[in-house]
Amino acid sequence: MSTSTSPRPIQLETVRPDDNDAITQAFELGCQFKARLGMQMRGAYEQAAGDGHLLVVKQDGRVIGFALYGTAYQRVRLAYLCVSTEHRRGGIATMLVEHLSAEHHDLAGISVKCRQDYGIDKLWIDLGFHKRSQVRGRSHTGRLLDVWWHDHGHPDLFSRQDPPLLRAALDNNIIRDLGPAQSRPGASESLSLLADHLTDQLELVVTASVRREISDLDPGATRDACEEVMSRCTPAAPASQAVKAAQKFLLDRVDAEHSPYPAGRRDEYDLRHVASAVAAKVGVFVTHDARLISVLRKPARALGLRILEPADVVVHLDELTRAEAYQPVALLGTGYQLKALGSEQDQAVEHLAATVSGESRKDFLRHIHALAVARTQRRAVITPDGDVAALYVTGQQGFALTVPLLRVANQPLADTMARQLLLILRNHCRASKLAAIVVDDPHMSPGTQRALLDDGFQQINGRWIAFVIDTCGTAADVERDASAVARHLDLPEPTPLRSTMPAAVVAQLERNWWPAKIIDTALPTYVVSIQQRWSNQLFGVPTPLWREDLGLSREHVYYRAATGGPAAPARILWYMSGNTPAAPGIIGCSQLELDVIGTPADLHDRFQHLGVWELSQIQGTGGSQRRQALRVTNTEIFPYPIPLPRLKALSGPRTGLLYPLSPRKIEPELFAQLYREGFDQDA
Question: 228-232, 571-575, 650-654 — which is least confidently predicted?
């Protein structure tokens, strides 16, 4: 008598944050293959589960495969794809990738990095990926990694490089961990910084202060190993005066409970290391020294430096990267001004010559003189000390605003400055009733080029081009106008747009083609109430908005009670409440990029680089202990605010819109009418 057993069923599920058993099983399965996946951290699995980004396949209650991933920059970043040995060639990897693709089909696609010497190209091809580029790994062997891409077939407006680098300075204990002595406590966590999937996203920096401490070690294997690790990191030697100033600031703000400080040579080293990281203008200092963290984390944060353990860096990499690259709060109240620059001031800008890329100062001055003769307009960002921090030149050719020169000085706020200038250029283009920006400067810095990519520019035949589509209409309307611009510029016409496009795709289109608004799609619009004191500080309303300075940024964060709030991506129409000094009404429109709920302290630490809110003000915005942070960008202030009586007339029976104390979702037709009237009273 023979018996047959049917194949045991398998289940695919997204792991819940409280499912410790599934988290543990996935972590242990990953550890079995750490030779290929790299060092594993349970905390990364827990964080992924908390974000809904840990996908597992089970059979008889056991995890036999998983995908751990993140979402950022309009893509899925696949960190680990793992299947148990006995279940390979059974379609598990296909099941995981297909589910991941279906679940996040609104994003541009899925990216993954894989070492070439693993020899599994056929696997990625069978899973629907194609090879897009290659990078070199960070390990001592420097193996080549292929970058694979699984495209979701959306309009081809996602031509952008990998996310910008996060620069993280290493403490000496981390450097020791990264050497051969991997049995040190905490070494496995530190080694996660070398993971293949972090290559070209995380730049490891060693300051001169840490190098000096390593040099104090006795000659031998340990020091040699540390020297080898440091040779693969980026050196930083900030000015001694900047280090001393940072040390004084830190000492003045060390909590009394840690007094006296420094209490010995170890503390003196720690203080100097953190001050050097501050002076080097990196965003993160990585350590697992408990005393250093407890004493210096808070005062260092006030200087813009996060002191983190390795696991925190790896788990929160995307958010940390964005915070370092864009810090508009650093410009608030600083007195930077935007001014026209005459030809008699050429010598004041010669330091902007791109000597690193082979441009001499003489050639640069000759170029800007020729541009002046061509009757272009030159504008400069002037520091409070009177120095030129940035310079751009504009002209006009047909339907395009031409920018033959765009330079930002090499200084700590360079990335922030570049992003500010791009919004100024978009506003200039829109005000001039032009439909595209063409940047044709071959000597722009890498940071400026990253800002262009992030802002929707595409590099075509050596020029950087962005559409500025001032259309609020259907997908067909916006496609028609964008296609007309492409024809005038002799460019390929954009991929056809559809009203069925997912909300995330529409949001990216509206960002890339700003100020375009595509109304017959899934992207929602909310009316959100804001008090006049906050609209004044964030948007300059009701006081005049435009001043000749850079105090107002293109990105803001707004805090509200953590109930019934809008979900990103979306548009927000701002309803300014109150009666003095201005009448209530709709004052402008923003793009909502992120919504986060958390404690006031956590949200303030996460977003303080963006805004004007103090922790006490966030704590006072509602009755509960949790708040919602809304990160918005590209705010448009209406030239003709829509007063309450007009809003009442347009709203008809929608009585809830008359006093929108809580966010209200509105129909596309009403949004279009409000938006058009905000720019044209006769619309």
Answer: 650-654
* 466 SS3 class: strand
Q: How far apart are CA 145 and CA 410, in angstroms?
A: 30
Domain containing 633 — which CATH number? 2.30.130.30
Residue whose tokens read 């020029």: 463
Q: Pick from 473, 483, 411: which is nearest to 448 by CA?
A: 411
pLDDT by residue (tens digit) across 188-235?
A: 788 888 877 777 678 889 998 998 888 888 787 788 888 888 888 888
Are 235 and 134 within one domain?
A: no
List beta partners, residue 665.
526
User: How many domains in the chain?
Assistant: 4
Q: Smallest Cα–Cα separation from 156: which of 473, 460, 594, 430?
A: 460
Model confidence pTM above 0.85: no
Contact 416, 390 (CB under 8 A): no
Task: Report which of 606, 278, 544, 551 is spatially closest to residue 417, judged by C-alpha positions.
Answer: 551
Of 341, 484, 284, the closest CA to residue 400 belongs to 484
Q: Contacts for 485-488 with beta carbons within 8 Å, 24 or more apart? A: 485/399, 485/435, 485/436, 488/398, 488/399, 488/400, 488/435
User: Is 268 within 8 Å of 304 (Cβ atoms)?
Assistant: no
Its domain, for residue 409, covers: 337-468
